[in-house]
Amino acid sequence: MIARLQDYVTRQADRRPDATAVVLDDARLTYAQLEAQSTQLARLLSEGGCRRGDRIAWLGPKCPAAIVALLGIYKANCVFVPLDKRNPAVRLKHIIDSCEPRCLLAGGAARERLNELSVLGMLTPAMSLGWLHGAAPGDASFLVDFTAEDVLAQPAVTPASAASSDDPAHILFTSGSTGVPKGVVITHGNVAAFVDWAVRYFDIQPGDRHSGHSPLHFDLSTFDIFGTLAAGAELHMVPRGLEILPNRLAAFIRDQRLTQWFSVPSLLSYMAKFDAVGQDDFPALRRLLWCGEVFPTPSLVYWMQRLPRVTFTNLYGPTEATIASSYYTVPACPDDALSPVPIGTACDGEELVILDDAGQPTAPGEVGELHIGGAGVSPGYWRDPNKTRAAFVPDRRAGRTGRLYRTGDLARLGTDGLIYFVGRADTQIKSRGHRIELGEIETALSALACVQECAVIAVPSSGFEGTVIGCAYVRMPETRVTPLILRNALSSVLPGYMLPSVWLPFDVLPKNANDKIDRPKLREEFLRRAAQAS
Length: 534
Known about the structure:
The protein is of the alpha/beta class.
């Protein structure tokens, strides 16, 4: 196994320097160009004062330059922190305050967000004013306005490194139940363990052409990138906006002659809903992989019937366990559209175990909480030892001494020896591939002066999103409150995928015998209203 993720590219640049590595529209980089430019960026960062373990944030579009930035950050012995420029400024401030980046790289249209953050006082003076050309080594932090000219002016000599596979590679910030995003620390070794297994299992070859659909702040993108680069294949980034145009997305798969597609299931269900896939379509496609949420069996049947030559694999795993921890390759198109698809068995180096409340394994067929151990388990949450202790627990099984990650997912072991996902044990959901803490939405709603009481509910849906977010609310007396007013207020603090899509006003929220909000009753009411509307 390689020591650091950038070693994959160095190895490929030595073997096939002129082979294409990354493609987006008309822009493309060879492995030699990717290796040289990332090395030049690393020199730029090191001479600017970046040192081992420093966090470097990236605020820019998903493009070939972003892959250069990612690798350059690694080669400078630093930690990559991707920022979603579509997030509200307040959310970006939480992430920046938490990770305290030594440097913030910006590119493309994202420079406008930097100006906005600077005006709002969300960057330190050094970061907002200390442009690279004026920053002296040793400054507390600085801002790099990322241009190709700056990078190409540097020598292509990799900075000295004493880094190891145990060093953090990136910090991915996910939804937090307290209203503050929490950072998941992922090491180089965490990623390499999964990538090396996946390259072997899927037999990924230099001639493969992989999709790059997920944004860089989403865990799935890690496999898009390094599953491709490890094998010397081509990464074809999906242009922004195609995910809402199913026929154009199908044309992209077809025209780019992709051999592998990897995305969240909601996108695949969306394409099925609009019948965007023809019989025996995508002649080059060999593998279709999904991860991040449940893929409804009827949608899977739609795809498998139309693409009988393609291999379909369900991957399962939370961010805290690095990309995926289990897999299940569907052997044949399901006969029963209502039968569940298992999450399967553990990937090499991983362990999935279903435990009861006493921390002991459940019997086959019994439901318990799914725990994950092994090479992909994160060291923990960034600068949050309390959350880390709560989620990453000692293995209490007899003779075991390691750590397990509590997924919060309920699962059971089937009589076929495969693991089946049952549901969530808490208020965290997956919607359209995004992991969402419903408590974070409630926290934001409760902060609004016009809201007296509220509850946010996950409502099952037959649509492509799988689960929709419902909000039940009680307005403050003598205030005018509408769903549009609430949605607009929330949009200033929450990203779009976390905004409720169905709303129910109440005079008083229903309560159970313990005087707590009766959430099952609210869910029934949402479903009843939905049935009436249809």
